[in-house]
């Protein structure tokens, strides 16, 4: 098990990506735990943790400049409840092929008020009934989900299924939480 530390961060590959963000690539480093991100001094707009063994999205310091977080092909099961507070300007979150099991496990992302692009393909939760509509209902800022643009009719359908007291049984029926 490799815990992210200062040495790994300083040995990571840094570049300006096509979105003109300063990007830190920490791919394929067998990282299992996030820590010491404070030593980046909030200098990156994008951090790529693809193909590691990360299980939890937690231990973030406040990173105001981080806009894009890439975590494809990890083992993420848990998203910390304070992610919106710690990453207040997060706009793009890529979590393809992880282990997020239940729709309720995604609830902390509702606190990411600027999140507009989310990829969860290949997670067990993405096969749940009303997955798309629950995420649209819960994360109001989303514009793209799993490479598909969210249309007004999708928002209306999400509200029809989940909004209001009369639809509380729908939330209880479709939304579970991992233990």
TrEMBL record:
User: Primary place of residence?
Assistant: nucleus
Mind telling me which residue stretches traverse the membrane in this protein? none
Q: Name one GO molecular function term.
A: U2 snRNA binding
The cellular location(s) given in this protein's UniProt record come to:
Nucleus
| SMART domains attached to this UniProt entry | LRR_TYP
Keyword terms: Leucine-rich repeat, Nucleus, Repeat
Keyword Nucleus listed? The answer is yes
Q: Which GO terms describe its biological process?
A: mRNA splicing, via spliceosome
Classification via SUPFAM superfamilies? L domain-like
- Which GO cellular component term is one of those annotated? nucleus
Keyword Repeat included in the entry's annotation: yes
PANTHER family (UniProt xref): U2 SMALL NUCLEAR RIBONUCLEOPROTEIN A
Family, as annotated: Belongs to the U2 small nuclear ribonucleoprotein A family.
- The name under which this protein is listed is LRRcap domain-containing protein
| Naturally occurring in which organism (per UniProt) | Parastrongyloides trichosuri (Possum-specific nematode worm)
Upper classification of the organism? Eukaryota, Metazoa, Ecdysozoa, Nematoda, Chromadorea
